[in-house]
C-alpha cells in the first residue's frame, strides 16, 4: 500500500504489519474522523482513512 506524506510517497508492507490502530473521533464541525494508523516492520508509518477498499485489504492480511 502506498500513500503520500509530507516527506514524499511511502510504501507500506502489508505482509509485515506490526501495528494497526483504528482512530475514531467526532470533530467540532459536526463530522467525524475515522482512520487507521499503520506501522510495518521496516518502521514505515502511514495514516489512511477508513474506506471500504482499505478496510478489506487490512482484513485480508489479518
Description:
- The chain has 62 residues and is of the alpha+beta class.
- It has 1 helix and 5 strands.
- The strands form 2 sheets. Strands 3-4-5 form a 3-stranded antiparallel β-sheet, with no helix packed on it. Strands 1-2 form a two-stranded antiparallel ribbon.
- A hairpin with a 2-residue loop joins strand 1 (2-5) and strand 2 (8-11).
- The protein starts with a strand and ends with a helix.
Jot down its keywords:
alpha+beta, 62 residues, 5 strands, globular
The topology string of helices and strands comes to EEEEEH
Low-confidence stretches: none
The tally of helices reads 1
Give the strand line-up of the largest sheet: 3-4-5
Residue fraction in strands: over 45%
- Roughly what is the average pLDDT, rounded to an integer? 91
User: Shape from CA axes?
Assistant: globular
- Kindly state the percentage of residues in helix: 10-25%
Main sheet: strands, sense, barrel: 3 strands, antiparallel
Distance between the ends: 15 Å
- How does the helix and strand content classify structurally? alpha+beta
Tell me the quaternary state: single chain
Amino acid at each position: 500500500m502506498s500513500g503520500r506524506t509530507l516527506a514524499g510517497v511511502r510504501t507500506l508492507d502489508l505482509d509485515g504489519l506490526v501495528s494497526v490502530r483504528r482512530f475514531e473521533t467526532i470533530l467540532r464541525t459536526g463530522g467525524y474522523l475515522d482512520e487507521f494508523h499503520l506501522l510495518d516492520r521496516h518502521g514505515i508509518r502511514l495514516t489512511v482513512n477508513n474506506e471500504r477498499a482499505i478496510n478489506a485489504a487490512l482484513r485480508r492480511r489479518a
